[in-house]
Design a protein that fits this description.
324 residues, alpha+beta, three-stranded antiparallel β-sheet
Length: 324
């Protein structure tokens, strides 16, 4: 449906007020009214209220009423915001080359901004707030901490934008989890292609393969990585969850999956939820016990890697440096 002359005029009025507000990082309602002196003051107040309700700006002072921008305010964002208000938030009224889905089909997903990707997952907006504006608000809030988005609750995202209701939230979380699984599979395949030749290779592999365990897990987990005769990764298995000791991590539970995989060697892996990867005395004792058990089965324990939020430690290197 084409724009009418009235639509175009309303859009121009609305956009002019947005541009006046966007001229500074911090602005007052009086500043905008002065910049748009020929416009009705009540209409200027309404436009600024729309910005506040859409969380593009945040109030910082009540008298005189001042605001700061909480989202990007380049021409594209301002144009899309004005269109969402004038055209009742129907993206089908926006130019084709501005719509996230059409841009993805034309350019590829990698060319889209984070806000546009989120808008595709959110799918639909509501009166006064488009899916893209919701994406902009979420992206702004998670600037430099996008990795934390996966842990956001429904209430937290709804507070950033009223568009994010249950359906939109589920779509976002499903998209994030699918991306994580694809990434994990790619990392695992990449690790399997290169042999594990030493402790550094083992740490590099475990940092990638068990990145989520290192960052997200709130309790200790013990895993093994099985390798073939040429030290290529065959598989990985979780052995136990909970505090590690010799009763929980028993040799038969460790080597059973290794025997099933016909593994020639294994790498032991566990996490420290505290964030400190420094091996404990229990870690060292457990490693030695499993090394002895492996000798009886002719399955070598190549290394034991401790992963944590910010680092990983090889017990083989740790002992060789005389730190044990």
């Amino acid at each position: 449906m084409p724009d009418t002359p009235d639509d175009h005029e309303r859009y121009q009025r609305y956009y002019r007020i947005l541009a006046a507000a966007a001229a500074q990082d911090v602005f007052s309602l009086a500043d905008v009214k002065a910049a748009c002196a020929d416009e009705q003051p009540a209409y200027v107040t309404r436009v600024v209220s729309d910005l506040e309700n859409g969380r593009l700006v945040l109030p910082i002072d009540a008298d005189p009423k001042q605001f700061r921008w909480a989202a990007r305010r380049d021409d594209l964002v301002l144009e899309q915001w004005a269109r969402s208000q004038i055209y009742t938030n129907r993206m089908t009224r926006s130019p084709l080359d501005e719509r996230p889905r059409e841009r993805l089909l034309r350019l590829g997903a990698e060319k889209l901004r984070t806000a546009e990707l989120l808008a595709i997952l959110i799918r639909t907006g509501r009166k006064g707030v488009s899916a893209l504006q919701a994406g902009e608000a979420i992206t702004t809030h998670y600037t430099d901490k996008l990795d934390q988005l996966k842990d956001a609750g429904r209430g937290e995202l709804a507070a950033l934008s009223p568009v994010v209701r249950d359906t939109a939230y589920c779509q976002m979380m499903a998209g994030i989890e699918l991306g994580r699984r694809v990434s994990a599979t790619l990392a695992e395949k990449a690790g399997r292609e290169a042999p594990i030749r030493g402790s550094q290779d083992a740490m590099n592999y475990c940092r990638k393969r068990f990145a989520r365990l290192a960052v997200d897990s709130r309790q200790e987990e013990f895993h093994i990585v099985t390798l073939d005769t040429k030290n290529h990764v065959l598989n990985d298995h979780m052995v136990s969850r909970g505090l590690l000791d010799q009763t929980v991590v028993h040799p038969r539970e460790v080597f059973r999956p290794a025997i099933k995989d016909a593994a020639k060697s294994i790498i032991l892996v566990h996490n420290h939820p505290s964030g400190d990867a420094t091996p404990s005395d229990k870690d060292l004792m457990l490693t030695r016990r499993l090394e002895e058990a492996g000798k009886l089965l002719d399955i070598q324990v190549l290394d034991h890697i401790v992963v944590a939020a910010d680092s990983a430690v090889s017990l083989r290197e740790y002992e060789s440096l005389g730190m044990a």
